[in-house]
Amino acid sequence: MTDLPTNQDDRTAVMPTFDGAASVPAPEPAPTAVAGHTIARSNTAQRTALVVLVGIGALALAFIVMILVGVSSESINALAVFATPIASMVAAYYGITLSIQQVKNERAEKEKAIARADAADAGSRETEVWAAQMESGLRVAMAKLAAAGVRTDEVTKAAGTPDGFF
């Protein structure tokens, strides 16, 4: 048995022991950026809800004042003067917040797409290197078989190479 550390859990790292004592788990890492992003998203949602509630409250207050003062054409015009800017501000805030969220989501998707493209490119390079190594090994084997006077027709056929490849 070795004294190398082993991971018993994804969240726990085991420290190597040097004096034969039992291993002590390392402390858990701090919350990741994903958790911070979730907190920021919930704060934005709470802020949007707060703005909408304040707008609704202001409109309700305007209706109450109108009812207490008396319903007339002047009070309805006054209510329109109060309600229009409040509704416009709430709608504008909601629209801007939604646009900002969409931009954030698109940027995150772009980053994911770039990461996938980079991974595919790295995989392609590794495949090309592997193919070059296999071709080199096949050429060496064919040269050794030819030097030993062994027929290589079966090898060429199994490799799927064209007739003049070697």
- Number-wise, the strands total 0
Radius of gyration: 36 Å
Number of structurally distinct domains: 1
Distance between the termini: 50 Å
The proportion of residues forming helix, as a percent range, comes to: over 70%
Number of helices: 3
> Secondary-structure element sequence?
HHH
* Structural shape: rod-shaped
Quick check: average pLDDT? 76
What is the structural class?
mainly alpha
Strand content: under 5%
Largest sheet: none
> Which parts are unreliable, with pLDDT below 50 for 5 consecutive residues or more?
1-10, 12-27, 29-34
Structure commentary:
With about 170 residues, this protein is an all-alpha fold. The protein has one domain (about 35-160). The chain is built from three helices and no strands. The protein has helices at about 35-70, 75-145, 155-160. α1 packs antiparallel against α2 (about 75-145).
Task: Name the descriptors.
166 residues, 3 helices, disordered N terminus, mainly alpha, rod-shaped, 0% strand, single chain
